[in-house]
Design a protein that fits this description.
This protein has about 300 residues and is α/β, with parallel strands linked by helices. The chain has one domain: Rossmann fold, CATH 3.40.50. It has eight helices and 13 strands.
Length: about 300
């Protein structure tokens, strides 16, 4: 079963996978259970998986998960993605959909084949990406056709070293392996490449966050551009980057956003939203994207 598309209002009941796969029509007359099953099977075989998207819109999948064992108000994947979606929804030509990437995510590859890009804000993204061969191959196909790839916080990581190489070939950098480095610090962000389009209207901010640093990088000849650095252990470390991949696509990453409260920073929201736009090869407004949100947008639903 595919993970459900996630409604923006968490209090409402989420749709099931069959809500998206079964047409809302009623056949006239009684149908036996077997005949109904055949009808459903035929429909699933003849219809593509996904959502209705205008021909000129670019579909970006915002892939999130439920709680991963971290404390409340940290690793709030869906809540953060709802804020990102609100920012992206203001952009003409972008169709952002929040999708549950909780396992088994069996029909994820078919969704990815219909998308122009994906954002990973979930647990151990590098490991999740390679959970099964079909999923990895779908991401590789997306990259090969110049697709947009973005990773946020734990979505760029893994505990073991094995997933690192295939992940960095797609996203450029990874927080992975037993020697991975991370720290909760109160620091000021530094714009490493101020004239990069992603940093339009982005300012340095002082805050507390958990950052991943000393990342494993792609060995490609295509250089990775640092966007943000922060001071940790007396050194300035890259915590956000942009990458023009050799396959013609673009990747973006940011290791912050451990604490949900940091979505309240306009420069954080603008960095992430404009990072996604850049990967989609869309223009960024000269004054920066409007990323205004309300206090209610930051409110977390109760965990069950």
């Amino acid at each position: 079963m595919i993970g459900p598309f996630v409604n923006q209002k968490p209090a409402r009941q989420q749709p099931t996978a069959q809500d998206h796969l079964v047409p809302r029509r009623h056949c006239r007359g009684p149908l036996s259970g077997r005949l109904l099953g055949l009808c459903l099977a035929f429909f699933c075989l003849t219809q593509s998986v996904g959502v209705a998207v205008a021909d000129d819109s670019r579909l970006i999948l915002l892939l999130g998960q439920g709680p991963d064992g971290h404390p409340l108000a940290t690793h709030e994947y869906f809540a953060g993605l709802r804020i990102l979606k609100k920012c992206l929804d203001r952009v003409d030509g972008v169709h952002a959909e929040i999708v549950s990437a909780d396992e088994p995510f069996q029909q994820g590859p078919e969704l990815l084949d219909k998308a122009h890009g994906a954002v990973l804000f979930l647990s151990e993204g590098a490991k999740w990406l390679q959970h099964d061969a079909a999923r990895l191959e779908a991401f590789q196909r997306l990259a090969a056709r110049g697709g947009a790839l973005s990773g946020l916080h734990w979505g760029i990581g893994c505990r073991d070293a094995q997933p690192i190489d295939k992940y960095v070939a797609l996203f450029g950098a990874c927080h992975g392996g037993p020697d991975r480095k991370f720290a909760v610090v109160t620091t000021r962000t530094e714009l490493a490449t101020p004239d990069h389009p992603i940093l339009t209207g982005v300012s340095s901010v002082s805050l507390e966050d958990e950052f991943y640093y000393r990342l494993k990088l792609s060995k490609s000849n295509s250089a990775i551009t640092p966007l943000l650095r922060v001071g940790i252990e007396g050194e300035a470390h890259m915590v956000s980057w942009a990458w023009d991949r050799p396959d013609g696509g673009r990747s973006f990453g940011f290791t912050g956003l451990h604490f949900h409260r940091n979505w309240s920073e306009p420069s954080y929201r603008r960095l992430v939203a404009q990072g996604v736009l850049w990967t989609l090869k869309l223009p960024i407004p000269t004054e920066g994207l409007n990323v205004d949100i309300s206090t209610n947008d930051l409110t977390l639903p109760e965990r069950k």
